[in-house]
Amino acid sequence: MIARAPVVVGIGETPLRARSTESEHALGARAIRAALRDAGLAITDVDGVVRFDREATWEFDLPGWGRLPQLGFYDAVPRGNGSAPALLRLAAMAVRQGLASVVVGFHARNAALAAGPGMGDGGLRGELVGPAQFQLPLGVGGVAATSALVFRRYMLRHRAPARALEAVTVAARRRGARNPRALRRTALTAAEYRRSALVADPLRVADVAPTATGAAAFVVTSVERARSRHRPVHVAGSMQAVIPSALQQLPEWFRVDRDRAVSSASREMFRRARLRPGDVDVVLVDDATSPLVLLGLEDHGLCRRGAGATFLAAAGRRVNPHGGQLACGDLDGVGQMLEAVRQLRGDATVQIRGARTALVAGSPLEPTSAVLLRA
Amino acid sequence: MADALPPLPVPGPDNVEFWEGCARHELRIQRCRKCRATRFYPRPACPDCGALEHEWITCSGKGTVYTWTVIHPPTLPAFAAIAPYVAGIIQLEEGVFMVGQIRGVASDAVRAGLPVRVEFDDVVEGIALPHWRAA
Amino acid sequence: MWFGPRVAERDVAVVGIGQTAFSKGLGISEAEVAHRAISAALDDAGLARGDVDGLCLYDIESNTVPEVARLLGLESVRFFATHSHGGGSYCALVRSGVAALREGHARVVVAFRARNRGRRSSFGPTIAQGGRPWEKIAPRIAGHYQYQVPFGIQSPVQEMALIARRHMLDHGTTEDHLGEVAVAIRSHAVRNPNAVMREPMTLADHHASRWVSEPLRLLDCCIETDGGCALVMTTAERARDCPQPPAWVLATAQALGPAHHRPTDWFRHDRRRWVTAGARALWAAAGVRPDDVDAAMVYDHFTPMVLLALEDWGFCGDGESGAFVERGGIRWPDGRLPVNTHGGQLSEAFIHGFNNLLEAVRQIRGTSTCQVPDAKLAFVASAASDPGGAVLLAR
Question: Between chains, do C268 and B97 touch, taking CB under 8 Å as contact?
């Protein structure tokens, strides 16, 4: 069997907003249609679908699904910032293995109007059955509190100052100010940052990405099939690593050697792609909160453990050039992939010149994933 | 409880037109503006051509039984009082399929193609459910 | 458009299977069920937890990916994927795992299903805590269920009944055909010490069982049980060192289908088109024909879906499944295609079809309690609904 080189040929999204009156179905449909248009393909060309498992729109909800000739591949990943890059991983796998020739991946989010396919939660709200029952009721919930606890250990371990976060956030906001698509479009001075309210010490409001409402989608096919007017973006490598979820089982996150699990999987990703961290021109690391940027850079070998802040200072705009989720809003991590594709097409708002290789890394707080893209 | 409510729908941006129509005892469905296909249940994009542009039309309320079943206990409390009851898929004149109870006919006399007409149950303030009566 | 799997090779195999006891109430959590099933499968494969680097599971598992990993001490998992559809997905888990192995994303993949749905297991009000999901319906429903539940179609058996009725109208399928499916599969369970329902069933017994949703009776429905099943897959290289004879994954397929959970859509689209495409892809990739199959494990949550699956995957023509099952067509040992030789979801246990995969492996190994002599090819599938899929295992 000839291996088919998978390429991203289309991306599409709706604007990310704080609120929307559109359903997740409507938002998803718009993003998917936009991605297909961008790819120069029609819905009837699609024979593969990848999505988050907890997603409102399923395979038989896609716009025009009734006329799909077939669906040779459909698969999902756990919903969340950790697995967002894995959407691309699965799509690439399907194309290379010949399970499908055109794969659509997408995500839509409108928390206020979320209406999944389920039957409802059966009545008693607030009942927890998993390990989250050991932290949420105690007031330790959400990505901000979790990140704060994680970062506190990071500070102790690496003797890093809390001010390291300020650098991450101020830089993100500065880039976001140049991005008309950003939700937070004003830059922050250091003084403004320090004056802003604490959310979960040492995280401040600005250290937490606003959750966004909207949708994003991509289309992957084989390089032989690509018809898009854009430069095809190759999926050169990918990884996943199962670690505990800090959001659900925080103590476990500290108990296992998650650093080693993620780093070794990342090294294998680079090795299989015949690339090195030094080859990466633009980095999209998950920044649902600012400390995660440091973890992400270190996890993927862009710098030593504890040196994330130093690397960031030197790397300048190459990290989350669009302002990251901190400025653009967080769509469960999916928006980051689209920015990477734009950068490699030469089509980004804040363009990194000569960008040929991008790393997209998912959240380090839960089972995680990453992809290496090349143009 | 004798008058237990059935689980009720949640109106949202995609379906509010349908449920508000029902509250007025009107059966309204979408028709794609691009390929003219009708669709139900309400959703933002056409299952046939994928277009988002659509309009709402008011149905005649007439249809035929496409398939049916007779449901026996145990059921949800709301249906306990009427069980066993006939429910089915109705094909409307406009082409779409809907699910509903079939009334006004003995359960062993239901047949495919039986003409039916919509009738609305006012369940709670603002919510009426369309069911079907042998015409 | 090429959408089929690659040409059949003996490069990936199921090398381990494991299960818990099946019963109407095991008295242990789904976490423990998962642990037991996966541990048993790893033992069967002669592999250790540290060897596992791929995980394929349902998103409807009450235990998430990181929880399962911690539960079993799996520290090296570098591929994981989830699936949402119930019986439509059990073959998809295998397809996904096979792809990961061929890609080199993983070397040892575990796929499993842990499911406590016995009536005695309904230990909480939320769906995650066992019991019947449709008895835990919220007072307000967003999503597509709002177009059926408030109207009186509340559960899968009622959705199936609508489909079965239409099949009877269109093709002359009878209650006797439905009953034959139940009776045949029960006869297989009688010989299976792990099956929950082992009392022999006659057609008269079937017809005497109470109506649930006409035309479906109690004995047309799967049983409500607790249990878990797991399997381990690896590449040919490693399979050589495993103690059990490998069950090679010759081919897999996925097929789009309307969801039976959406009765408004079931008849709206040309389902047969998708079904035909999926079946064609499967047999072409495998280089074999339905006639070559020695035993078939078909998703049997309700008897009519067995009939549909036989048609969908090409064992008989459209509408001809009734005739196919008549006169013992699917009965072991003399039927031309023994179906669900373990008793399936109807009589062994309801594990969303996962037990079907395990039984197919047993047929290849020669260890089934209803063993088809010299079985070389075992077929596993769900009807093309939900969407569906299929797996072909070979010796």
Answer: yes
Its domain, for residue C46, covers 12-120+223-394
How confident is the model over C23-36, as a mean pLDDT?
93
Amino acid at site C79:
F
A259 and A299 Cβ atoms separated by less than 8 Å: yes
Could you give phi then psi for residue C339, rounded to 5 degrees?
-115, 135
pLDDT of residue C182 exceeding 80: yes
Burial class (CB in 10 A: 0-12, 13-18, 19+), A67: middle
Decide if C157 is inside a domain: no
Residue B124's domain comprises 16-134
Comparing CB atoms, the residue among A62, A66, A113 nearest residue B13 is A113
Asked if the structure places residue B48 within a domain, the reply is yes
- A244 closest CB neighbour out of C70, C262, C269: C70
Measure CB to CB from residue B72 to each of C141, C169, C210 and give the nearest one: C210
Classify residue C139: in a domain, yes or no. no
Contact A360, A287 (CB under 8 A): no
Residue of B nearest to A112 (CA): B12
DSSP state of B4: P
Return d(Cα A322, Cα A331) in angstroms, integer.
14
Candidates C7, C52, C94, C96, partner chain A, best to mutate (most A CBs within 10 A) = C96
Whether the Cβ atoms of residue A283 and residue A308 lie closer than 8 Å to each other: no
Q: What is the CATH number of the domain that holds C292?
A: 3.40.47.10
User: Is residue B55 in a domain?
Assistant: yes
Q: Give the other-Cβ count within 10 Å of B35's Cβ.
A: 13
The structural domain count of chain B equals 1
Asked whether residue C33 is assigned to any structural domain, the reply reads: yes
What distance in Å separates residue A180's CA from the closest CA in chain B? Answer: 26
Q: Which amino acid is at B60?
A: S
| Residues A190 and A166 sit within 8 Å (Cβ to Cβ) | yes
Distance, CA of C108 to CA of C76 (rounded, Å): 10
Instruction: For chain C, say whether B87 makes contact (Cβ under 8 Å).
Output: yes
Tell me the one-letter amino acid at A93. M
User: Touching check for B53 and chain A: CB below 8 Å?
Assistant: no
Confidence at C134, pLDDT banded by 50, 70, 90: low
State how far the Cα of B36 lies from the Cα of B13, in Å rounded to an integer.
21
Both tokens of A228, joined, read 């898009």
Backbone angles phi, psi at A263, to 5 degrees: -60, -45
Q: Is C152 on the interface with B (CB under 8 A)?
A: yes
Query: What angle separates helix A142-158 from helix A291-299, to the nearest 10 degrees?
Result: 60
What is this model's ipTM?
0.94
Pair B81, A97: CB distance under 8 Å: no
In a domain? residue B11? no
What is this structure's pTM?
0.94
Q: Is the dihedral of CA C103, C104, C106, C110 positive or negative?
A: positive
pLDDT tier, B64 (very low <50, low <70, confident <90, very high otherwise): very high
Residue B5 domain-assigned (yes or no)? no
pLDDT at position C1:
30
Residue type, C195: A
Strands C140-141 and B8-9: parallel
User: Could you tell me where the DSSP H helices lie in A160-211?
Assistant: 163-176, 190-195
Domain map (residue ranges) of chain A? 6-114+210-374
Domain A6-114+210-374: which topology?
Peroxisomal Thiolase; Chain A, domain 1 (3.40.47)
Q: Which residue of B has its CA nearest to A32?
A: B50
The residue that leads in pLDDT, B7 or C216, is C216
| Inter-residue contact B135 to B115 (CB < 8 Å) | yes
> Does C270 lie at the interface with B, CB-CB under 8 angstroms?
no
pLDDT band at A125 (very low <50, low <70, confident <90, very high): very low
What pLDDT, on the 0 to 100 scale, is given for residue A1? 44
Q: What does the block give as tokens for C90?
A: 């059990």
